[in-house]
């Protein structure tokens, strides 16, 4: 397997394309040049640091460092889920529900793939575990944040309908079922769209990366199929757990709708 | 008999008894807490105090079972499905009530959005009456109705009261309060009630 190596100098020319975006922003008065510059610097610094960090982790092959890296990834993803919510859950649950469900779903699916499909030695080898977890986390995060966002907003919008069902003797799950269904549909939609369009509209980054690195395209496709199946499973599991958990937290044991437990993010 | 003792929710603090087959009118200016009180009795919001039905504590039965016996009807009832009949477990059984309130008998497959505010209010009442609850907590149930429809609703509820159903009827209409009730509870700013006879 051979691939064309790039030096940092080789990246200077393509970086001019970002400069071109900045010039466009100035000429067209889009006022995006500052944000663009910050985003570009952040991207370069973050990726370079991750490159060195992964090099260290791959050399160490330590279960402790691998677990620490995985936890940090889950924490950042939890923060991202909260940042995307207009209405937030109470207290520790604002981070805990999304983070916990993501850890449950992405962790389960990643360990399943490591133990049954890839079988690296050792099974937690960071070269396999971390990229796999990263890809599954990224997609599960999208599903969970969309599901929770639709759940909380729909409960506010459909409050009269939910409470009408409760007032007539419905249980909290009977009353919330239409809203739960909408939230699950929204959470599943991105991965379903992605699965339908893959190969025709888009070539996924991981597969492209493998092909550029010299892997046979058919082998790269097999890897990509594995990843897509894992992402679909992780997204389904995580979104289901988060939406059901959110529905449980926004009602109480007396089957009352508890919208008072939500806080509105006035900055989003 | 419904017994409400030291019921507290937000600024209101209320105690009263409601006999079987009795209707009490609940009056007071907007924002005084009539809806808050009715929702608290139905246990739709967190509240403190003791509420009993025939001596049985509300907390001793599951909340859905309580609300099937003590049913709250909002001024503007909510709808969770597309068509009218999807909101009823047995639509055909509801047809006599639908007809009684002057609603079209063929409105079952209609989309809820097609209905006027008054039609939705009457259908919400039909939906609640289908439960045959022991206590009805009616929150301005005729606020969107014309005179004829209001009379039909009052007549239907009177028949239920005669059968032993107890009713708390919130209304801004003094004449209606006198017509339908045997006692009037006037809610005062501060959340307490003053009782009078019509």
Automatic annotation (TrEMBL), chain A:
InterPro entries: UPF0014_fam. One of its GO terms (cellular component) is plasma membrane. This is ABC transporter permease. Keywords: Membrane, Transmembrane, Transmembrane helix. It comes from Bradyrhizobium manausense. It comes from the Bacteria. Belongs to the UPF0014 family. It is a multi-pass membrane protein. The keyword Transmembrane helix applies. It is found in: Membrane. The chain crosses the membrane at residues 12-30, 37-58, 94-116, 128-151, 191-213, 225-251. Its main location: membrane.
UniProtKB/TrEMBL annotation, chain B:
Keywords: ATP-binding, Nucleotide-binding. InterPro entries: AAA+_ATPase, ABC_transporter-like_ATP-bd, P-loop_NTPase. The keyword Hydrolase does not apply. It comes from the Bacteria. One of its GO terms (molecular function) is ATP binding. Residues 2-198 form the ABC transporter domain. Gene3D superfamilies: P-loop containing nucleotide triphosphate hydrolases. Involved in beta-(1-->2)glucan export. Transmembrane domains (TMD) form a pore in the inner membrane and the ATP-binding domain (NBD) is responsible for energy generation. This is ATP-binding protein. It comes from Bradyrhizobium manausense. The lineage of its organism: Bacteria, Pseudomonadati, Pseudomonadota, Alphaproteobacteria, Hyphomicrobiales.
């Amino acid at each position: 397997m051979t691939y064309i190596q790039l030096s940092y100098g080789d990246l200077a020319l393509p970086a001019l394309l970002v400069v071109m975006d900045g010039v466009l922003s100035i000429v067209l008065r889009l006022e995006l040049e500052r944000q663009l510059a910050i985003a570009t610097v952040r991207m370069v610094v973050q990726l370079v640091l991750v490159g060195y960090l992964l090099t260290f982790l791959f050399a160490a092959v330590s279960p402790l460092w691998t677990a620490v890296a995985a936890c940090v990834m889950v924490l950042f993803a939890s923060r991202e889920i909260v940042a995307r919510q207009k209405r937030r859950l109470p207290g520790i649950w604002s981070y805990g529900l999304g983070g916990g469900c993501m850890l449950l779903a992405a962790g389960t699916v990643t360990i399943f793939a490591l133990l049954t499909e890839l079988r690296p030695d050792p099974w937690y080898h960071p070269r396999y575990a971390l990229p796999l977890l990263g890809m599954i986390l990224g997609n599960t995060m999208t599903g969970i944040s969309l599901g929770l966002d639709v759940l909380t907003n729909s409960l506010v919008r459909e409050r009269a309908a939910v409470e009408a069902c409760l007032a007539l003797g419905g249980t909290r799950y009977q009353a919330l079922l239409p809203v739960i269904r909408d939230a699950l549909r929204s959470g599943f939609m991105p991965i379903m769209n992605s699965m339908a369009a893959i190969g025709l509209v888009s070539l996924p980054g991981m597969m492209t990366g493998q092909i550029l690195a010299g892997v046979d395209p058919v082998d790269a496709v097999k890897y990509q199929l594995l990843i897509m199946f894992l992402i679909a499973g992780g997204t389904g599991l995580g979104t289901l757990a988060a939406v059901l958990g959110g529905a449980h937290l926004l009602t109480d044991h007396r089957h009352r709708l508890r919208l008072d437990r939500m806080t509105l993010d006035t900055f989003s | 008999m419904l017994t409400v003792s030291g019921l507290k929710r937000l600024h209101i603090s209320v105690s009263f008894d409601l006999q079987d087959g009795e209707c009490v009118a609940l009056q007071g200016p907007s924002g005084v807490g009539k809806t808050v009180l009715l929702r608290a009795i139905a246990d739709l919001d967190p509240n403190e105090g003791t509420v009993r039905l025939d001596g049985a504590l509300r907390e001793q039965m599951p909340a859905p079972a309580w609300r099937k016996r003590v049913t709250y009807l909002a001024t503007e009832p909510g709808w969770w499905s597309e068509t009218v009949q999807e909101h009823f477990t047995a639509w055909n059984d509801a047809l006599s009530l639908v007809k009684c309130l002057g609603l079209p008998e063929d409105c079952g497959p209609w989309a809820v959005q097609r209905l006027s505010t008054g039609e939705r209010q009457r259908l919400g009442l039909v939906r609640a009456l289908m439960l045959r609850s022991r206590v009805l907590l009616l929150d301005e149930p005729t606020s969107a109705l014309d005179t004829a429809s209001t009379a039909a609703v009052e007549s239907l509820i009177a028949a239920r009261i005669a059968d032993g159903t107890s009713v708390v009827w919130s209304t801004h209409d003094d004449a209606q309060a006198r017509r339908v009730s045997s006692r009037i509870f006037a809610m005062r700013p501060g959340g307490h009630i003053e009782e009078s006879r019509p």
